[in-house]
Every structure is written in structure tokens, then in C-alpha cells.
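Exercise: predict the fold of this chain.
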Amino acid sequence: MIYAVIDTNVLVSALLTHNQQSPTFLVVEAMISGRIIPLYDEEILNEYADVLHRPKFGFSNKTVDNYLSAFKKRGEESQRIHSTEHFPDPKDIVFYEVALSKDDAYLVTGNTKHFPHTPIVVTPAEMLEILLRHNEEDSEHT
């Protein structure tokens, strides 16, 4: 199992793209298919809802509700683990702290510069590489 916190910018990008081969789209697709177990807390779900409902994106209420339901159904609610790291935007702290709640979890973001430079903070493309390695390891063990 691969656990990951999906940053809001990844979700927005995945929903906006018309390219079904884009890393953001494939990461969200991996979450929906169960290859990534999303970690979240109430604050993260509220952030998703607030951002996805912004008129500038034009997402329907049904689309937003479907994605929020997918996170709840496929994911795992987690508690924050306090971090003393500095964040340029205090609203980003929750994503990092929830990622810390599970051993070997990742934070998938398109804005790595907003987070500490640690191995758990990865781009969508890096997450796809991790998924590929994980699948190869699983194949070797079967």
C-alpha cells in the first residue's frame, strides 16, 4: 500500500487537464483505483471543498462531491503530527503534518518549494515513479 496526502493543487490540476497522461491526472486516477490510499483530515477536506467550489474553475457540485466522496471512501482519516518546520504559507502545514502521521507516507504536490526538502515531499511525476517501483516489487514477490 502506498499512502499519500494529495495537495489541493494536484487535485485542481488533474480536474482541469484534458491530458489523461499528465502526472496529476494519473496520480488522482491511482487514488480512485485504490493504488494510492489518500490520507486526510477534516481541514484538508474543507480546503478541497473550498477551492474546488471556486467559480473560476467551473467544477460542478456533483464533480466536487464525487471527488470528496472518493477521498473519504478510498482514504484514511489521519491525525496531524506536529512539525517545527517553517512554511511560507501556514495553510500548507496541515498537508505536511498529516503526511507525517503514517510511516512511509508521501505528500504529493506541484509546489515542492512550499514544503521542507524531505523525501516524503514529492511531485506528481515522482509519485508515478514510486508507484511503478512499488508495482515492480510486488511483481517480484508473486
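Check your answer against the key: The chain is about 50% helix and 10% strand.
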